[in-house]
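User: Sequence recovery, please. Input:
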């Protein structure tokens, strides 16, 4: 049984040892509305190619785990209804049942690692939700970062989360949280926050070196890069805070739980900001794709001794 099917472009890149950047698909199906989601993937894949790497968008289609999607597959996925949201727990069942599902950060990391892809760009990872002490809602993305050796380029944890608790869990799990080029931890839609980042690196080369060093030390797990959204596209933390509070209150009032929480909050924030949050979300994903490609290029060049 072949476990996954690479696109032609990804298969060629894998055999030639060319740099590849994995991309998730939950952001397409559950994170953004159509048609902006489709436009976003096309732009993201373009940015990765322009930076000298090959994009590998990952999803399960009719039971097949695809690493790299064709234009037709992406176009279909972006407007298809009823696509499942697949995390570590759901991936194998969806494949075994011949289903179609979009991969979260956790499931995308699993597939990327399986295919030998070391770098992955997303928007923001899942984490500890406010009220987790009651709801126990902690994303499986955190555990995945602890065990799967992929460098994940994000704009931090999504600001809908309890960021201090998310940082505590990541620290407990031994996941390096590395701000790119600044001391403060970016907060997804906002380029800075009041929280200092646990670690800081200023170049793609050094991120690649840290990735290699982790492997050489025999440490399992990945690295979380927190790449600030460009200043001109950000929404300051003070502006986002009341909107996020409103969205979280609405989710509670409507009894939204489990997998539905994150998609609900993103959609609600899109409405409350009259679309501004989506423009920022797209800008930060593009920015992450660019950095991820630079890291992948650096990883594919053997280090000088
Ligand atoms: N980043 C975005 N939009 C998203 C997500 C990330 O900009 O929709 C998705 C990712 O797939 C992430 C998931 O893994 O949200 C987290 O979901 P949960 O909180 O249910 O684990
Ligand atoms: Mn959750």
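Assistant: Recovered sequence (305 residues):
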């Amino acid at each position: 049984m072949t476990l996954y099917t690479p696109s032609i472009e990804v298969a060629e890149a894998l055999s030639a040892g060319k740099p590849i950047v994995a991309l998730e698909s939950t952001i397409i199906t559950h994170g953004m509305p159509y048609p902006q989601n489709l436009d976003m993937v096309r732009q993201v894949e373009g940015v990765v190619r322009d930076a000298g790497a090959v994009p590998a968008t990952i999803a399960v289609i009719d039971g097949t785990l695809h690493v790299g999607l064709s234009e037709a597959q992406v176009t279909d996925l972006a407007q298809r209804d009823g696509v499942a949201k697949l995390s570590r727990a759901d991936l194998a069942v969806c494949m075994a049942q011949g289903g179609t599902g979009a991969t979260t950060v956790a499931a995308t990391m699993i597939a990327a690692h399986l295919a030998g892809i070391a770098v992955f760009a997303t928007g923001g990872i899942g984490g500890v939700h406010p009220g987790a002490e009651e709801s126990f809602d902690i994303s499986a993305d955190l555990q995945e970062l602890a065990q799967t050796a992929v460098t994940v380029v994000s704009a931090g944890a999504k600001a809908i989360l309890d960021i201090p608790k998310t940082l505590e869990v990541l620290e407990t799990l031994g996941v390096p949280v590395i701000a790119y080029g600044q001391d403060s931890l970016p907060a997804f839609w906002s380029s800075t926050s009041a929280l200092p980042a646990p670690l800081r690196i200023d170049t793609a080369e050094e991120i690649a070196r840290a990735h290699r060093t982790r492997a050489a030390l025999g440490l399992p797990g990945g690295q979380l890069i927190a790449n600030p959204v460009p200043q001109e596209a950000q929404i300051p933390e003070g502006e986002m805070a009341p909107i996020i509070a409103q969205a979280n209150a609405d989710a509670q009032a409507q009894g939204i739980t489990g997998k539905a929480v994150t998609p609900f909050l993103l959609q609600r924030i899109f409405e409350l900001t009259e679309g501004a949050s989506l423009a920022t979300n797209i800008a930060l994903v593009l920015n992450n794709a660019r950095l991820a490609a630079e890291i992948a290029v650096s990883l594919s060049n053997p280090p000088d001794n």
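The domain at 1-117 is CATH 3.40.1790.10 (Indigoidine synthase fold).
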